[in-house]
Amino acid sequence: MPSVSHRRIVAVDLDDTLAHTIEALAAWHNDTYDTDLKHSDFHTQNLWEVWGGSREEACQKVREFYTSKHFLDLEPINDYALESLRMLKRRRFSLVIVTSRQQLVAEETKRWVDKCYPGVFDSIYFCNLYLTNAEQQELISKPKSAILREINAELLVEDSLEHALECAQVGVPVLLFDKDGQYTWNHLNIDGKGVQEADAMILPHNVTRIKTWKQVVAHFPKPASPLRFCWVPSDFVNSDDEESDDMKTVDVDDMSDDDNQYFQDGEWKKSSSRELVWA
Ligand SMILES: [Mg+2]
Predict the structure, then answer these.
(1) Do 246 and 234 form a contact (C-beta atoms < 8 A)?
(2) Distance of CA 279 to the CA centre of its chain
(3) Total domain count for the chain?
(4) Stretch among 72-81, 111-120, 192-201, 249-258 having the lowest mean pLDDT
(5) What is the CATH number of the domain that holds 145?
(6) Active-site hit among 13, 159, 178, 199
(7) Contact criterion met (CB below 8 Å) for 66 and 72
(8) From the CA of 16, how far away is ligand 1's center (Å)?
(9) pLDDT value at position 221?
(10) pLDDT of 102-112, one tens digit each?
(11) Is residue 15 annotated as part of the catalytic site, yes or no?
């Protein structure tokens, strides 16, 4: 595991959080197997439940997908994701990708990230999940929650409900990405309850459903201005003023209004300290 940045780390999932993977997977499956699958058919991330067949066959199909043009030409999420991430980078966060993907596609993944999110991410961590039986003899899987703990990530942006709950359980707050409310695979199904009501009943306090990348950014406070004083020549102030030094000091603390916030228990709170705290 590479050395960890001293900057605050925000971890981001890749498939369906940064890329329109399900659309591409459905299109590939339709072209290859003459099916008519739509985005809405993917009500679960257990692909064998959508495609039929066994879990092993579904893993093998994903390996076929990896060799296709559909995979190599994945569309990035067209939802201000790039702009939002660049804003977080400007705010001095270290951004890393933590993906379920296998190291088998490390090079293809790097090329895609460099093309679609150039200069945004510092690292990509591969969890090696969903291995075929043969791959399990050679590769080691690691849960996302374990990687997040190792790199000391402070937040995860993720579309998988399963991974969100797993990471929240080890204390990492999660923004559950549900693009435009269309990611039915991360909706909780409780008879007679809507998504919002089911979330309130089931989701832990540190998992927050968000529907756009702009909402991701809204969960981060604006950075405090480093400016604390404004100095002006004394000629510009009333000469009868009791302060007669050459320079005049004016406190402009009120210029920044968000510098006393900190993130705790899934929400931003006010701190009495001047220092911005990310609890
Ligand atoms: Mg995903």
Answers:
(1) yes
(2) 18
(3) 2
(4) 249-258
(5) 3.40.50.1000
(6) 13
(7) no
(8) 5
(9) 78
(10) 999 999 999 99
(11) yes
